[in-house]
Amino acid sequence: MSNSNSSMAAQAVAHVYAVTGATGTLGRAIVGALAGPADRHIVLVGRSQSALEEVAAGAAASNSAIHIVAGADAAQPAQAAQAVVSKLRDVVAALPGGRVRLVLVQNAGTLSDLSKAVDQYGEDEIASYTTVNFVAFAALTARFLEFAKGTAAERITVVNITSLLAVKAFANWGLYAATRAARDQLMRVVAEEHAEDPRVKTLSYAPGPLEGDMQASVRATVGDAVQREQYARMHREGKLVRPADTARLVCDLVHSGGYESGSHVDVFDLMPPPE
Amino acid sequence: MSNSNSSMAAQAVAHVYAVTGATGTLGRAIVGALAGPADRHIVLVGRSQSALEEVAAGAAASNSAIHIVAGADAAQPAQAAQAVVSKLRDVVAALPGGRVRLVLVQNAGTLSDLSKAVDQYGEDEIASYTTVNFVAFAALTARFLEFAKGTAAERITVVNITSLLAVKAFANWGLYAATRAARDQLMRVVAEEHAEDPRVKTLSYAPGPLEGDMQASVRATVGDAVQREQYARMHREGKLVRPADTARLVCDLVHSGGYESGSHVDVFDLMPPPE
């Protein structure tokens, strides 16, 4: 009976998600958390066609429709934004009509060179890092909102996958921390700009220190000895966050809408740190 | 007697300041607040030689040494940073020796297009604005710190002229707010990176809504009607901050060192809002 109810509700609304950085550790986990119901379209965005196909294959057993945007390179923000929105336009146009909700999950991003303090950055490094981690983010935010607001979508959500570093500074995270702070603040402004438009919400979500490649890279490269030891201990003691856990939490939060638009939510606001 | 004491102290330390955006309303006020004592070298940084010469002429009656770096264009971050540091290197090399304090005041910056919401930004606009207002800032921070730490300077300070927008979001300020948040966070990371090096401090200073051209532009262009009316009222009622007042406050604060490194200080933390 509850199955029948949720099935009826599911038919009533089509959910269209785009997930950038879909081939990374967290991106895969987010796709895994989203895939399932037949009322969902999930657009996987990344650079490598083969890696995206692998992620799509992993979600093929679900009832959700999986789409791919390959060749999306954050070093080319305008083209990448255009490619994502173009695919979303096609997906929305092919829907049978009825209620639609659009969600953009901006998970793409790179670590800055954690071996370096700010005074060791090169000018080209600053420029290219900022392009990939902020300009591409802002460009896709702009083009997604422009597109989405032109549709009949009843709910439009931009999710910024951010970090504790956006709100707390640590040594050796200069460019990463600065660009995450910029992303968070852009989300707050978008929220203010839609204070009178309940369709549009933004969320900045800090997924925590994740098990996987990215944390291994942090442990291997971070120049600050205190942090290196801290992360090594968390790794040894199994205190890193499981990607599937944090992905489930953010997807549930977005689906429920139970957050203040523009806010920064940390995984440890939603669950206790691993014992 | 106190004159004699302060004169001895003054001879003991050479103060070298570089001020970017030196030809703008606040830049001129900062130069005015700094110029005076004979132990000060002030490097005025900007694009226009003639505008810089005009500012220099205004400070010529002081006992401070005034230097100019013209042609510094934040749209070319590497060249601009190089030009500033090259001049500072010359100024420091020409000092007679003894104690030196180096201060970089990063006041250069532009308003973003306040008529636009985030979804109206163009990709090129996002890229070029970010270059001028964050990449150039970070590049100069990096090169200045690298240079300064290689000298015998006993105190090295980076001042980020920021805004309330770095910490509070308002509609139509997307790119401005995001890049100011990024600048603030970079300053916090630099502070963390020098937690064990008391020579180096950073300060993010929000000068307030200033009388002058920039506020006139805000009132003329901001898309949000509530803010337009609010700023017009502040203007009518004489409640905008006088550039000379806020410039004096930040210069005194930097000189005294009476702030926590990495912190964001607002003009209204230091004085009551105009009656």
UniProtKB/TrEMBL annotation, chains A, B:
Name of a matching Pfam family: adh_short
Gene Ontology molecular function, alphabetical: sepiapterin reductase (NADP+) activity
Subcellular localization(s) per the UniProt record: Cytoplasm
GO cellular component assignments: cytoplasm
UniProt entry tagged with the keyword NADP: yes
Keyword annotations: Cytoplasm, NADP, Oxidoreductase
Taxonomic superkingdom: Eukaryota
GO BP term (any one): tetrahydrobiopterin biosynthetic process
Keyword Oxidoreductase listed: yes
Protein's recorded name: Sepiapterin reductase
Organism: Coemansia biformis
Lineage of the organism: Eukaryota, Fungi, Fungi incertae sedis, Zoopagomycota, Kickxellomycotina
